[in-house]
Amino acid sequence: MELDGKYSKDQSLLKCDCLLFDLDDTLYPFNSGIAADIMKNIQDYMVHKLGVQESISLELCVLLYKQYGTTMAGLRAVGYQFDYDDYHSFVHGRLSYDKIKPDPVLRNILLSLPIRKLVFTNGDRAHASRALKRLGIEDCFEGVVCFETLNPTSPPPIPAEELQIFDIMKHLVHPQPGVELPKSPILCKPSRVAMLQALKVASINPQTTILFDDSFRNIEAAKQIGMCTVLVGTSERKKGADHALESLHNMKEALPELWEEAEKDEDVRNSSKARIETSVIA
Ligand SMILES: [Mg+2]
Question: What does pTM read for this prediction?
Fold first, then answer.
């Protein structure tokens, strides 16, 4: 940050005591091909398991994602019934995780930061675990806040004859007066309720936490609840994002304050250790 030609330290980074990382397209890059495979699997699930017409599956998939944060949350909102574990095993369980490459550079960066680190993903626990293992960073985090954290149980099935599907595509083109978009029972980013719930579960103070996420709407939502935000996957900073990083590999150059504070803490630890050792010898 340049102010009157002088470098000004980012206070929000200096007081930070927790780093929260999105998983997909943040901890591993978008060009891994996993995002495209996930999208294809979701469309197949919609067509083969929920009876959505193939010709509209792509449009509906994208529309629900935009409206509800995830296509899954949107499918539930408009009335489709399915078991959450069944959905996840179909969408994520069949992915080729070898497309995600081990990332020793990222591992070193994470390990060099003695600050609390957690993953916050809309994905399910098994997906997060497999992706983190492939990256070789599964032991770099205190915990993972995932789909199951916020949505512990699948709803009981409803008899097929009682199913009513809200035609959201028609509604968005010709909104009926007085008819509102249905709400989803699924909690996920970027919903404010989901974000606050995730922070509560993990005992995180938003005022001293940085969110790293490739989704701008997640970044915007995080900013609104007081978090410091880093948009990942682009170097172009948008309003609402405090920083933007092409890749997490650039963290140290872009956010040196994080290391500075960590090193200061390390100095304090070392000096108190020295005092203890001295007093023992004396
Ligand atoms: Mg993401």
Answer: 0.88
Q: From ligand 1's centre to the CA of 165, what distance in Å?
A: 28
With respect to residue 75, please indicate whether it lies within any of the assigned structural domains.
Answer: yes
Residue at 204 is within a domain: yes
User: Domain for residue 137, yes or no?
Assistant: yes
Residue 276 has pLDDT above 80, yes or no: no
Which residues are placed with Cβ below 5 angstroms of ligand 1, an ion?
Answer: 22, 24-25, 214
Tell me the per-residue pLDDT of 163-183, one tens digit each, with 9 for 90 and over. Answer: 899 999 999 999 888 999 999
Interhelix angle 216-224/192-201, nearest 10 degrees: 70
CA of 257 to the centre of ligand 1 (A): 25
Asked if 62 and 68 count as a contact pair (C-beta separation under 8 A), the reply is no
State the average pLDDT over residues 156-163.
80
Q: How many helices (H) and strands (E) does the chain have?
A: 13, 8
Residue whose entry in the numeric block shows the structure tokens 């001295």? 278
Q: Is residue 73 part of a domain?
A: yes
219 Cα–ligand 1 center, Å: 11
- The residues with which 228 forms a beta bridge, in sequence order, are 210
Note the pLDDT tens digit of each residue in 211-226.
Answer: 999 999 999 999 999 9
Domain that holds residue 67: 22-267
Unique residue bearing structure tokens 């629900």 = 64
How many domains in the chain?
A: 1
242: domain CATH number is: 3.40.50.1000
Three-class secondary structure of residue 157 per DSSP: coil
Q: Tell me the backbone φ, ψ of residue 41, rounded to 5 degrees.
A: -65, -35
